[in-house]
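Researcher: Structure for this, please.
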Amino acid sequence: MRESLLTIPISEIMEADGCPICAMRDTLESRTVEYIMGAAMMEPDVRIETNKAGFCSTHFSQMLKVKNRLSLALMLQTHLDEVNGDLFTRRKLFEAKDAKKKRLSQINESCFVCDKIDWGMERLMRTFFEMWSDAQFREALSKRDYICLPHYDLLVSLSPKYLGKGAAEFDKTVGELVKSYIRSLYEDVSKYCTMYDYRNTGKDADWGTSKDSIERSIKFLTSR
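Model: Predicted structure, token format:
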């Protein structure tokens, strides 16, 4: 397939280790957090969005790590002011009785960064499935280390929409990756458990690849 501005980022991700969909998500996530904690924080259009949407716990934690507390404080100042106005101003004349309850749910469920990631992932997924028609891409995908369980769910749910009858071959390819990785994780976690048997202790104990099996299993099961 001919390279383009749309396909190049995915081609680069396919050369790295790990779940390629996690890599896409992580790239979008880090760029969005850097963007919102930088000069964008002072852009009126962006502040209108962040005031309305706010941020989830995951992305508040990531923003705190950027070490630009003033930017975060300024966004919190105007976001809190908007939340207060949405929830505790007097009900408008023609406003439904449950309108404030609905706004409360929207505030708790919304996140500026999540919205931007969802927007970007939708476009990346469209290109990802378009690239499936290329033989080199199909081979590269089949040789991936693994695809995490949440993103396996995402891919097989989207494949009929983008691939139609070709979804069966795609689902089989990614299914084999997931099946193989689950088997290897199970073996490593089992090995880890057996290493706590007193008969396997000692300075020459062979842990193999099991020492980080807990972390790898959690990452596979949660995508985080």
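Researcher: Any notable elements?
Model: The two ends are 31 Å apart (CA to CA). Residues 3 and 124 are 14 Å apart (CA to CA).
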